[in-house]
Amino acid sequence: RKEVEQDPGPFNVPEGATVAFNCTYSNSASQSFFWYRQDCRKEPKLLMSVYSSGNEDGRFTAQLNRASQYISLLIRDSKLSDSATYLCVVKGNDYKLSFGAGTTVTVRA
Amino acid sequence: DVKVTQSSRYLVKRTGEKVFLECVQDMDHENMFWYRQDPGLGLRLIYFSYDVKMKEKGDIPEGYSVSREKKERFSLILESASTNQTSMYLCASKPSGTGGSPLHFGNGTRLTVT
């Protein structure tokens, strides 16, 4: 079983729609959680950290469910510029970060 | 703003060649990492280093070695390149500590081994 699993998508949504997707992780001792965004042929960049109580950053909302071992990302009022691959990243109690393979989102006009 | 610079954006090498991928960061980060990214597999850790001259194997170290002679520079070496090492290679750095500091990535080196 992979340490971090994501639905690869693609999620094709119209502008203005809400899109949400999850990421599951296998290590119950995982301590930190992140969403990274990766544009085509570019490097990943941090989108937001995920906190235990859930957190928002503008149109983006991240949630953590420790009991079921998943995190989620919700994008409201989608923009064309939100088209990207979203990587789920989970950190254990060491240096190691485990990456999901990514969920591709395409926002169409 | 953190800058992580990888020396080459695209590389084409022949099977059996020795290949050096260079990475330099300018934020005095202790931790540096080399990943490869392949479709459907995500990022996989090859090696990381938490201090000068220190290195640890990641998940897929076979066929690779690394060098960290200076804090700002972390080199990935393919001793004898093979076609299955064709991939996107990403270098990253972060400050020390086990907290939730994010990784800062370089813009990647797309290596093709023919």
Description:
The complex is a heterodimer of chains A (109) and B (114). Chain A has 109 residues and is mainly beta. Chain A is built from no helices and eleven strands. Chain B has 114 residues and is mainly beta. Helix content of chain B is 0%, strand content 52%. In chain B, strands 2, 5, 6, 7, 10, 11 and 12 form a seven-stranded mixed sheet that branches. In chain B, strands 3-9-8 form a three-stranded antiparallel sheet, with no helix packed on it. Chain B starts with a strand and ends with a strand. The mean pLDDT of chain B is 93. The chains are: A mainly beta (109), B mainly beta (114). At the A-B interface, strand 5 and strand 9 of A face strand 6 of B.
What distinguishing features does this structure have?
heterodimer; A: 109 residues; mainly beta; 6-stranded mixed sheet; 5-stranded antiparallel sheet; 0% helix; 54% strand; B: 114 residues; 7-stranded mixed sheet; 3-stranded antiparallel sheet; 12 strands; globular
For the largest beta-sheet of chain B, the strand count, sense and barrel status come to: 7 strands, mixed
- Helical segment count of chain A: 0
Give the end-to-end Cα distance of chain B, rounded to a whole number of Å: 37 Å
The assembly state of the depicted protein chains is heterodimer
Overall form of chain B: globular
Approximately how much beta-strand content do the residues of chain A carry? Answer: over 45%
Give the fraction of residues assigned to helices of chain B.
under 10%
Q: Which parts of chain B are unreliable, with pLDDT below 50 for 5 consecutive residues or more?
A: none
Structural class estimated from helices and strands of chain A: mainly beta
Please report which band the strand proportion of chain B falls in: under 5%, 5-15%, 15-25%, 25-35%, 35-45% or over 45%: over 45%
> How many helices of chain B does DSSP assign?
0
Helical residue percent band of chain A: under 10%
Number of strands of chain B: 12
- What is the H/E order of chain B? EEEEEEEEEEEE
Cα Rg of chain B: 13 Å
